[in-house]
Design goal:
alpha+beta
Length: about 200
Amino acid sequence: MTADNAASPSFPDPTVQPVPVSVVRQVDAADTTLQNPRRAVISLGSNLGNRLETLQGAIDALEETPGTRVKAVSPVYETEPWGVAADSQPAYLNAVVIVKTTLPPSSLLERAQAIEEAFERVRGEQWAPRTLDVDIVSYQGVVSDDPALVLPHPRAHERAFVLVPWHDVEPGAEVPGRGPVADLLPSLGGQGVTLRADLQLVLPD
């Protein structure tokens, strides 16, 4: 990994500009590979191994998933591990991607878990370090309490490492049942979230 830059603000960098709506519409109109796609928000995280390479690999794997196209990738943030004592684990790199997919939520979850396994994710105790997290945060505004996949993610509204990068790529986003992301952010404080301007994830061609 490259060396960290000086500490950056915990909330979205004002120099990070969202993609204009007109451009998004042009991209979507040109994408004839999907029929009646649904919009999903996916959170990525890694705190073991080559974290940036792992996140990029997950993005590429999502793009290679039949019926799925990655439409936006957030800046990279470094965050303190959630739910554990300070300095007990390496820091995470986190990002959020927006995808359009024809897969139903259950199939998208299966693909997310397969990608985790491909990067040797070990499922053990809660809050353990891991090579890769791929979490479905939101799926086309669906609200569901299905224990196999709760939508939206039941803790997304509490996590700056999800909401900060999500707000970067979708300033008008809302967590279904919880309200606008922009309104949820102030109550979270920094939560140890730092923009890594020296690192970049690439939107697949």
